[in-house]
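Wed. Picked up where I left off yesterday with Sensor domain-containing diguanylate cyclase. The coffee machine is broken again, so keeping this brief.
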Amino acid sequence: MLSVPLPVNEAQRQQALDSLELLDTPADPYLDALTRLAHDLFGVRTALITLVDRDRQWFKSRQGLDVAETPRSLSYCSHAVLQDEPLFIDDSHIDVRFAGSELALLNPGARFYAGWPLHDADGIPLGTFCLADPEARQLGEREKCQLRDLAYLTEGYLHLQHSSRQAEELRDELSREQRKGMLDPLTQLWNRAGLLHFLPLEQAAAERSNLRLGLIYCDLDHFKKVNDQHGHDGGDHVLWESARRMSAAVRPQDVVTRNGGEEFVILTLVHDGSELLQIAERIRLAIAERPIELEHAKLQQTASLGCTLLAPGESSSAALKRADQALYRAKHGGRNRSELAD
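Structure written out below (tokens, as returned):
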């Protein structure tokens, strides 16, 4: 068994990680674009942006992996953070550092591993931008430079996010444990508890900005058939990919939540119903524009959407009900369409 010692500055490192307010936050479309690029560029099964927490490694962005976190004790990223330098493992079966260890034996999907450390603004290592694959391989010098550049872009974006308005709101409104309880582990969106938390906050923001709070119900069409034909693993991937496309289709300040099952709710500040319907259509087209790739199939997924504006003095529950009724009309009107409530 290969133990993973803690860095000598572990307390300082953990404090730096906590201060960024990144752990247990929703997935980010920009970071997802970087890991998706890495996944395709290097042709590996898994590409991750990993943050090494106290007793776990948590994935801020992931491609090719269904879980949101794994134990720190079984983490190659922990070794990269400990060394604070890139870690390359061409073949864990024969690598003298890891061959025969519990780490190698329990990570068959990471026979090949390449991780580049990610740092905060003071140069403290927080995690890695990493690649993994079940087949042994070796990165050339050009590929190592490409991985370095992706890590550099990731670091810069995380530094910018730390000082953003949304990060400040998270620090003010939610503790880390509260965030963790409001995050859907599969899609990395806010769950229903998160929706109920953000509704009054967004309503207040709309009033301050002299805007309207728009609510969009989004339901994936014929989702039961997906589970029946492709199993729950296939269904989970469709939910995950649909969540990525929804988040990429809206603005950074919009709130995307998974209300349960295949149903999602989006909160957005708009001027009028026309603008709200345009956002709903962007979401619909983002889901339908290209097939979702499953392990052995390509699935053409669509979604139906119902949306409404919160009226002055109206309760959010009444507005949600009206958006749900608009969704019902979209379903019965042929699906793959958006409906605006009266």
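Quick read: The CA atoms of residues 291 and 300 lie 4 Å apart.
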